[in-house]
Every structure is written in C-alpha cells, then in structure tokens.
Amino acid sequence: MTRRKADPAFVPFADDAAVRTLGDFSIENGTARIALHGSLDITRDREGLGRARDLRAALDAIVTALEGEDLPESVAEEPEAAAPVRNPFA
C-alpha cells in the first residue's frame, strides 16, 4: 500500500492563497481561518482509505498549528475592510 505524504505547500494559517484539494473537497488557507468547501466520498476501499488519510493529515496539520499558538477566545466574524487599489487599466 502506498503511503501519501502531506502536502508541503499547504501550511495551515501561513497565507491567504494556498488550497489543498481532495476530490471535490477543498481546504482553503487563511491567516485567520481555514475554510472547508465541497464534498468528499470516502469509499470502503483502498482509494477511500487514501482519501481518509489525506483528510486526516490535513486536519492533523491544522490542529497542530492551533495547539502551538496562544489563541484568542474567538476571531472577529466580520472580514477586514479591503484597502482601495488603484485601477491599473485606468
């Protein structure tokens, strides 16, 4: 059986751009929150086991990142206001 390695490009809470994709399921990185979208079928076969292990590895990385920090009680629900940007086409 092939062991899958963690995705080194996905470091939880490191940036606002990285996405880890598992089938139709995506884990979108953010510096304040990580968003989970889509669906993931974990079938009762070797492929399903591989998908389950990939999901566990991603969640373990997120939990490890959180456990290693001094966390606030909660994060504000409102997104930060975007700063105006000059139109490069104007």
Polypeptide structure, described:
The chain is α+β, with helices and mostly antiparallel strands and 90 residues long. The chain contains 1 helix and 3 strands. The N and C termini lie far apart (56 Å). Residues 70-80 have a biased composition (Acidic residues).
What's the overall geometry?
A: extended
- Average predicted local confidence, pLDDT: 88
- Beta-strand percentage range: 15-25%
N-to-C SSE series? EEEH
- The helix content, as a percent range, equals 10-25%
Which radius of gyration do the C-alpha atoms yield?
17 Å
Which consecutive residue ranges, at least 5 long each, have pLDDT under 50?
Answer: none
Largest sheet entry: 3 strands, antiparallel
In whole angstroms, how far apart are the ends?
56 Å
Category from helices, strands and their pairing: alpha+beta
Q: Report the count of strand segments.
A: 3
Oligomer: single chain
Q: Order of strands side by side in the largest beta sheet?
A: 1-2-3
Count of helical regions: 1
Biased composition (Acidic residues): 70-80
Region (Disordered): 70-90
Biased composition (Low complexity): 81-90
Any descriptors?
single chain; 90 residues; alpha+beta; three-stranded antiparallel beta sheet; 24% helix
